[in-house]
Specification:
Transferase(Phosphotransferase), domain 1, Phosphorylase Kinase, domain 1, two-stranded antiparallel ribbon, 7 helices, alpha+beta
Length: 252
């Protein structure tokens, strides 16, 4: 099944290199695939074995689009940079990719993909912002983002579901697709754009004071963030809310 889903699988390289045996074994196993997301750029699946009910893996396939660069190779660069910066990251089991400069013109629908173990618990959920630890979790998450911003890391997609919280109370980055790196700490506007995505997703879920809480919490870590930046921050939240609303309208 996977060999049909991943044409010319034998031409893909893997990262890290020591996962080659795992890759070959992975391709040979019979899985039940459940498509959970499809767009013009990627397809996401949950995989489980034929004799087990629980999911075993999360598979993300990057569809080839010559307008975009080689996305799996970008993921590898980001993983390497995050490790260099000592930023806690939920690492994939492996990344498989094409290394040919002419691959864009070859008859293969995929750039490659990423394989993660299936993780049932740990990703932030709506309920995490309702319980007795809600205030602490949000404060720690905002502090985590501040530390990333200080290191020049611009996540760009800070939906709360993109963060993993382990049993020690430590956050980890998960979604690697949109991350950008800068040599210096982020400007205030980039910081606020990052925070606005988190605020929008929480407000969308009904936490109407999320934006104000996030702004005031971030000010504690970043004294240079004055009240005058509030208008810009809340306008970014409104802009993201409008975009999501329009996207839903078009899908109906």
């Amino acid at each position: 099944m996977l060999k049909l889903l991943i044409p010319n699988y034998q031409n893909f390289k893997v990262f890290p290199k020591d996962k080659q045996i795992f890759w070959e074994d992975f391709l040979s196993q019979p899985f039940i695939l459940k498509l959970i997301k499809r767009s013009s750029q990627q397809m996401n699946f949950f995989l489980k074995s034929l004799d087990e009910e629980k999911n075993l893996y999360f598979l993300k396939l990057y569809l080839k689009n010559c307008i975009r660069s080689n996305r799996p190779k970008e993921v590898i660069k980001r993983l390497t940079k995050l490790e260099e910066l000592k930023i806690p990251t939920l690492k994939p089991l492996l990344v498989f990719y094409q290394d040919s400069l002419f691959f864009c013109f070859l008859p293969n629908p995929l750039w490659g993909g990423v394989i993660y173990p299936y993780i049932e618990k740990g990703f932030l959920q709506r309920e995490d912002f309702q319980g007795p630890l809600a205030k602490r979790i949000l404060q720690d998450l905002v502090n985590f983002l501040f530390e990333l911003h200080q290191k020049g890391v611009y996540l760009r997609d800070t939906k709360y579901k993109n963060f993993y919280l382990n049993e020690k109370g430590e956050f980890k980055v998960f979604d690697l697709d949109g991350i950008k790196f800068y040599e210096k700490p982020l400007t205030l506007k980039k910081r606020l754009k990052d925070l606005s995505a988190l605020a929008m997703t929480l407000e969308w879920e009904g936490f109407k004071e999320a934006g104000e809480t996030i702004f005031k919490t971030y000010q504690k870590f970043c004294p240079s963030l004055k009240e005058s930046f509030g208008d810009y921050f809340f306008s970014q939240i409104q802009k993201r809310t409008w975009k999501r609303t329009e996207k839903i309208k078009k899908s109906i």
